[in-house]
Each structure stands twice: as structure tokens, then as C-alpha cells.
Amino acid sequence: NLLASDITLTNCDREPIHIPGLIQPYGFLLCLDEHTRRIVQTSANVEPVLGLAPPALLGAGLELLLDAAYLAEVDALWPTLTETARLLGVRLTGVAGQPFYKLILHRHDGLVWVEGEPVAEAGNNAFDLPALNLTMGQLLAADSVLECCQIAAEQVQALTGFDRVAIYRFAPDDSGEVIAEAIRPDLAPWLGLRYPASDIPRQARAMYLKNWLRFIPDARYQPVPLVPTLRPGASRPPDMTYAVLRSVSPIHLEYLHNLGSAATMTISLIREGALWGMITCHHETPRLVSYELRELCQFIGKTLSMLLRSKEQQDEQSYRQHVREHQARLFELVTVDSSFTTELAHYTPTLLDMFRCGGAAICYGGEITRLGQTPDEPQIAALVAWLDAHNRQPIFHTDSYPRLNPAGRDIRETASGILAISLSQAPGEYILWFRPEQVQTVTWAGRHEKPVTLADGQVFLSPRQSFEAWKQLVEETAAPWQSFELEAAAAVRQHISDVRLKRFQALEQHAT
Ligand code: BLA
């Protein structure tokens, strides 16, 4: 037994979710040897659907289930099969009641996987081409990442009818934030909520790069084992990375239970080979979404993925433009005749609007002028004294002031991030911009406080603990300053210095 002190987030990373040896019960699975084309494993739940128990199927081929026309289709597909799924609608021989099934076929791990799903109820007409065409047009025309994500969320919700469709974006530290969503009007929004990196462990992220879609139509399911557990000669269960019926981690099922979610569908958003985020769909009651509709949603996910880079560039361009415009406006305000502290502080746009920051301050002539959310005056005075003593550079920046100066911990809420330009050789003269501590700006998605979860004797962190661990990582840090922000600050400093020089020269001329 592990002690509480042994619990680490890496426990989650070690769960072998690709080889559970179990499937979800809404369909059935047959694994065929890719060479002999004989069934080597089946899911234990085949009998009610196929009229045959596993022992009757093992060693046989698909001719037991399909008539000649369907068999010919499978034969034609067989050599072309890869990890990418192919669909075959079939009528199963000898099955009473609902005989129509969709067979989803792919090849992986030496096997050809045949996953059978009952045909979902009619009414879900997946191929509304004009609607899809309209969506594509809107996605292309969107001006920003957020707008693009909002359109995608609304479309996926309209197509599938999920209670909630959220777009979840990862930060560089792998935590994530809900940046767009479409929800049933009576539900509480998740927009802006942040979740720790450990909610989606590393091996799951790696798998979601290979397989674009996960589907759990009923999160309260009883998993169904494979028969036999291991195929002859195998030392581990087969690799279900690409199997849609793969039974998911029990920890994740508990997580869904805590979220109040009975059905989910998740689509990867991949930007230049890296997992950028996910489209996550939730429903309060079980929900079966047809294969075709899932494919259509995947199509939207892939389209969004392709557009991310250009929309991000668009976002960056417009922020740069914003900074440039404010810089130019400040230049106009700070002229030879002005008392520049008044101009900088009181006219709009103010210093505060120039950058994405929480607050700003001008320290000049023994006075401190504060804008927005800032430390108080004595705290700023202490910061300025520290800068005078420790910083020789005209431009100073940090995304973690308390880590540079532990005595500065008291201002971490408003000023974990600092960008400072010195205004003169004289001590104490600065313009400062402040960024708040990330933990302060983050709204955590609160969940039930839970004890550690035991799964097969392993100890896992509960979601609440994983948040605490993440919080420790980002404590006393702010969003980093970008290089073009530093350049813009340097230009403001240069301009003020030029103006003051001119003013000084004018005064000298006047005196002589
Ligand atoms: C998987 N966790 C996931 C997945 C999501 C999330 C989207 C992918 C599986 C799926 O398709 O449902 C998390 N879902 C979220 C988040 C939002 C959301 C953040 O909708 C926000 C909007 N989870 C934990 C902890 C562990 C953990 C502490 O919170 C580990 C101890 C594990 N999460 C975990 C595992 C998986 C997972 C193991 C993989 C499930 C699988 O595919 O088998």
C-alpha cells in the first residue's frame, strides 16, 4: 500500500489506458488476425446481438455473420485498411429484432478490428451539405481564434444536440481554459474556467494526437471484457488506441460523474502536430450519436485545427496593431510643453490601455500616480527602491517578481508580473506596468472534495488535489511579457527621454 506522501500526479500518467482489455457495452467487438482473417478475440457481449457465444465465433471468419455481398465488400476493403476507420453498413445474418448494424473497421496491432454499433435512430441526418458549407464559410471569415471557436461550438451543438459543447484550449503549462461554449440555456456557463494539466494525463494526450475522437454514450456503463483475455501468444491485451469502443479509465468516469455528465464526445484540436485543445461535448443523460454525425463533427474539428495557425496570427497582428496605436497616441501626448505625468495618466488612452495588464504607475518627481489594479503607494515605493538597487537596465521585466525578491511577496496578487522603464538616471523615476498573479486571474472549476481514489491498488490524486498541485506551480507568476511589448515599452522610454532632452535644451537656450 502506498502512503499518502507517495501520491503524485505521475500516477495518472502511468495508467495504461490503451490496453484496458475492456470495451463499452453499446457495441460489440471482433478482433481478427490480419493474416489468417480468423476471429481471435471477441467481446463477451456478442451473444445477444449475433446469436452466437464467443466460443462459436473464435477461429471462425466473418462468413459466419455476413452474406456473400457484404463479404465481398469486406474483402475489397481488407488490403486498404489502416488505423483510420472505415464504415460498412450491414444486415447481420441470423439476427432477430434489429438486424442493421454499422461495422467500423480498422487495422492495428496485427489485428483487423471489427466494431459493431447498432444503427442509431432515424432523424439524425448527418449530411446537411448546405449547412456545412455555411459553417465552413463562417469559420474562414472569422476574425479571431475566439470567434472561430464559438462558431465551431455552436455548429457541433446544433448538429448533435449535446447539452454543452465547450472549446477547451491548453496553455503552455498544459492547464486548460474553456474559451468558447454553446450550452442549453438553463445550464451554468463554464466559459473562463481553468482546469489543471493533470485532468488529462500525458498518455491520454499522446493518444488523442493519434485518434481524433472519443465517445462515451453512457458514462455509467459496466465494461465488457474480451474473450479470451489475451489472444494466443500475447503478453498483453490488444492495443485499443484506435478502437471507438475502448473502455475508458475508471478515474475519468468518476471525473465525469463529478461533473454531472452522463455522455461525452471529445474531438482533438491539433495545431502543427501538437494538441492545442479539444472540443468537449457533455450531456446530462445518455446520448448515442451516430457514426456519420461523429465523423461530421470530426470534420469540423479538423477544419478548425487547420485554421488555428492563421487565426492566431490574426489575433497577434491585431494586438500588435493595438499596442502600436496606443504608442503613437502617447507620443502625441508627451510633447515638449507637457507635464508628462498628467498627460500619461489622465488622457485616454492611458498607459493602462496600451498593454494587456492589470495596472500601471508613474513614479516621477517624488510622486506616484497609480492606474488600475496596483500595489499601494508604500509598496510601489519599496519596489522602486528594489529596482534602483538591483537593476541596471533601462528596461526591466519579470513574470515572477516574488521569486526574484521574496520581500515582494506581498504584492503578488496585483504585481507578480512587472514591466518597468526607467525615466532618468535619477533614482526612483519609472513607468511601471503590472500583471496579476495567474492564480488570481484564474477561475477554478470547483469540484467535490474527494479522497484519493484507489484503482487496482494504485493511489491516484483526486481532482481537488491536482488543482492544488497546479496552483503551487503557477503561484507568484503572471502571464509573460512578449518581446514586442518590451520593444514598445522601450520606444516609449526613448520618446520620453528625447522630449525631456529637447525640453532641457530649450530651457538652456532660454537661460543664455
Ligand atoms: C481524460 N479528461 C480526459 C478527457 C477530458 C478530460 C476531456 C478526454 C476523455 C474524453 O473524451 O472524455 C477533462 N473534460 C476535461 C476537462 C474539461 C472537460 C478539463 O470537459 C473541461 C471543460 N483526471 C483527473 C485526474 C486524473 C485524471 C486527477 O482529473 C488522474 C489521476 C485522469 N482523465 C484522466 C484519464 C483520462 C482522462 C486517465 C483518459 C481517459 C481515457 O481516454 O481512457
UniProtKB/TrEMBL annotation:
This is histidine kinase. The keyword Nucleus does not apply. Residues 144-302 form the Phytochrome chromophore attachment site domain. GO terms for molecular function: ATP binding. It is an enzyme of class 2 (transferase). In the N-terminal section; belongs to the phytochrome family. It catalyses: ATP + protein L-histidine = ADP + protein N-phospho-L-histidine. Its EC number is 2.7.13.3. The chain holds residues 12 to 523 of 771 of the full protein. It comes from the Bacteria. The keyword ATP-binding applies. Keywords: ATP-binding, Chromophore, Kinase, Nucleotide-binding, Phosphoprotein, Photoreceptor protein, Receptor, Sensory transduction, Transferase. It comes from Hymenobacter yonginensis.
